[in-house]
Amino acid sequence: MFAIVQIAGKQFKVTPGQSLLVNRLQGEVGDTVVFEDVPLVVDDQTLQSGNTGKKVKASIQYHTLGKKVIAFKMKRRKGFRKKKGFRAALTCIKIEDIS
């Protein structure tokens, strides 16, 4: 059994027991989060698409920062250099149930 769920503007393929990193969610470690935007569910060769009415329950495992991304700009022979770094705020969630 798996489902396609929309979390924070992105779609993920999830199965029960799976852990995944998503954009930072509100809540503390151990909180339960329910995602109601589930456009596709596949259950033992039965496919439901569109407004399925299903929900995906997940628990927050931990909050972290992603890998650093460097934005470097330079114009040759002009002495212009600009360097900025960015780390995305992420949340690790564990999928508990698709119902």
Automatic annotation (TrEMBL):
One cellular-component annotation, GO: ribosome
Keyword Ribosomal protein found: yes
Pfam family, one: Ribosomal_L21p
Domain of life: Bacteria
SUPFAM superfamilies: L21p-like (SSF141091)
Alphabetical GO biological process terms: translation
Keyword entries, A-Z: Ribonucleoprotein, Ribosomal protein, RNA-binding, rRNA-binding
GO molecular function: rRNA binding; structural constituent of ribosome
Quaternary structure annotation from Swiss-Prot or TrEMBL: Part of the 50S ribosomal subunit. Contacts protein L20.
Main function: This protein binds to 23S rRNA in the presence of protein L20.
Family: Belongs to the bacterial ribosomal protein bL21 family.
Protein name: Large ribosomal subunit protein bL21
Naturally occurring in which organism (per UniProt): Thermoflavifilum thermophilum
Taxonomic path: Bacteria, Pseudomonadati, Bacteroidota, Chitinophagia, Chitinophagales
